[in-house]
Design a protein that fits this description.
By secondary structure, the protein is of the alpha+beta class. The chain folds into two domains: 3-134, no CATH class; 141-274. It has eight helices and nine strands. It has helices at residues 3-6, 39-42, 144-155, 159-180, 195-206, 217-228, 234-257, 260-267; strands at 16-17, 46-49, 55-60, 65-70, 77-81, 86-94, 100-109, 119-129, 133-134. Strands 1-8-7-6-5-2 form a six-stranded antiparallel sheet, with no helix packed on it. It has a three-stranded antiparallel sheet with strand order 4-3-9, with no helix packed on it. Strand 5 and strand 6 (86-94) form a beta hairpin. Helix 4 packs across helix 6 (217-228) and helix 4 (159-180) runs parallel beside helix 7. It is elongated.
Length: 278
């Protein structure tokens, strides 16, 4: 596959084989071999990579929709050689309307980037968004910012940080519905009720958890909590982020469809910034 297809994926530990992408123009007839190790010629060298077109999805505020941002296929990808195994790649992605995203990759080869069909992996990925570009739309109202931060943390390889934001969303929407419908957060003796108790009552009365996983309504919160409190590794957090993100946003979608989120926002005096993550 083209290197560009790998660049559409998040960083991973495993190496994947890609088509040859390193073709120095000044060495048209050059063939690399272990006996002819020209490492000194590579360091800091700028090179145009024949690696296809990078495409990533972002929410374009100008288009007010999720759009595919593409690199200029005709110009190729621009790389800087770090050493014979690592290359830095800068890439400008553009929406049809002209909105742009600047992305940067650090790609490592298992052996040597100059090999035919090398095995490579993405070590690091960074992106710089403009005011016209977001990772997602504002469809989730006050929770959109936290979901945006969760996505950013995940893309930066911060698994636990990403999960913290997902847990905040899950807690906050539950407390929001509870407050909007006068479901008590404290017991008669003044002690605070556990989140699982509040979630159970909220879901029984207002069905905020989609039927597909309502039987495990608290298991989701437990999984989020385990990762946050160190019972899960960073690798686990990154691996399960996608599934947990889908589950959390499906709760928001379910609430939105029932028009309860709007009602909660009008009645809700609870400060989401004060929601505990302990």
């Amino acid at each position: 596959m083209d290197l560009s297809k790998l660049l559409r994926k998040p960083p991973a530990e495993d190496y994947q084989q890609v088509d040859t992408f390193w073709f120095p123009e000044e060495w048209e007839d050059y063939e690399y071999s272990d006996e002819n190790d020209d490492t000194s010629l590579l360091i800091g060298q700028h090179i145009i990579l024949e690696a296809g077109q990078v495409s990533l999805n972002y929410y374009c505020t100008e288009c007010e929709d999720l759009r595919t941002f593409n690199s200029d296929k005709g110009q190729g990808l621009r790389g800087i050689i770090v050493n014979k195994q690592v290359i830095s790649i800068d890439c400008i992605l553009q929406c049809n309307c002209g909105s742009v995203v600047h992305t940067w990759y650090l790609v490592e080869a298992e052996e040597d980037i100059r090999y035919q069909s090398p095995k490579v992996r993405i070590l690091h990925f960074r992106e710089k968004l403009t005011e016209r570009v977001k990772l997602q739309s504002e469809k989730y109202g006050e929770f959109s910012e936290w979901l945006e931060k969760a996505n950013r943390a995940h893309r930066d390889g911060l698994g636990s940080g990403a999960i913290i934001y997902l847990r905040k969303v899950y807690e906050s929407i539950t407390y929001s519905i509870a407050n909007a419908n006068n479901i008590p957060l404290y017991r008669g003796n003044g002690s605070r009720r556990s989140f699982s108790d509040i979630l159970k009552v909220v879901d029984e009365q207002h069905s905020i958890i989609p039927v597909s996983f309502s039987a495990n309504r608290y298991k989701l919160f437990s999984q989020l909590s385990e990762i946050i409190h160190g019972d899960g590794s960073e690798e686990d957090a990154l691996e399960y982020f996608g599934a947990l993100y889908t589950l959390v946003t499906s709760v928001l979608d379910n609430v939105t469809q029932k028009e309860e989120l709007k009602s909660a926002a009008q009645k809700f005096n609870w400060s989401t910034n004060n929601v505990s993550t302990n």
